[in-house]
Amino acid sequence: MAKQAGRARRADDDAPIPLKRRRRRPDREAAEAAVRTLIEWAGDDPAREGLVGTPDRVVRSYEEFFRGYETDPVELLQRTFDEINGYDEMVVLKDIRFESHCEHHMAPIIGKAHIAYLPNRRVVGISKLARLVEVYAKRLQIQEKMTSQIAGTLSDVLQPKGVAVVIEAAHQCMTTRGIHKPGVSMVTSSMLGAFRDDPTTRREFLAMIGTPGSHGLENV
Ligand SMILES: [Zn+2]
After folding, report:
1. What digits encode the pLDDT tens for the residues 32-42?
2. What integer is the mean pLDDT of 8-31?
3. Dihedral sign, CA of 214, 215, 219, 220?
4. How far is the centre of ligand 1, averaged over its atoms, from the C-alpha of 173 (Å)?
5. Catalytic (active-site) positions
6. DSSP structure class, residue 212
């Protein structure tokens, strides 16, 4: 008995620590103090009437901007449907609007994602595709990474014949600071399986989503 318990304890010690526990998260008070520091750094007085409630509001905004860390994207896609009546055509969800933040400046990235996959017996509810974009968008991101994370997760979980993800987005770190270039959008894509190997499949998808860059991101 005692030996067994000892073994169990050792096994626990060796077990990988879940990501959520490994990341030490400061408490709310520390986060609000950090915002007060940034207000002072900007040159204003955090005790001024209009700014007194700001740290609390900023921290609550952050909970919303970065809530993607709370959801496991693989778990999100777990519920799939096997009964697809032989449907083996492309599934496309286009113009999925998202808001993210660049990991270099923590400035907003606002854009649209277009996702397609070629089912291989399993499909997933389309709202889950939009949620998948959301889970990765609500983190500190770079657009290239987000594009391949979405494609890679879909590919791993659904094991489809192919996955295509195109993202077009405006980066406010480029439009409101630095080189100040409004109206510029960045387009990234990740093509896997049939979308990479078969030009006809890729063309069909690109025709369905229209010309990237023509989706009116100029106003964001
Ligand atoms: Zn940036």
Report:
1. 999 999 999 99
2. 63
3. negative
4. 5
5. 102-105, 143, 171, 173
6. T
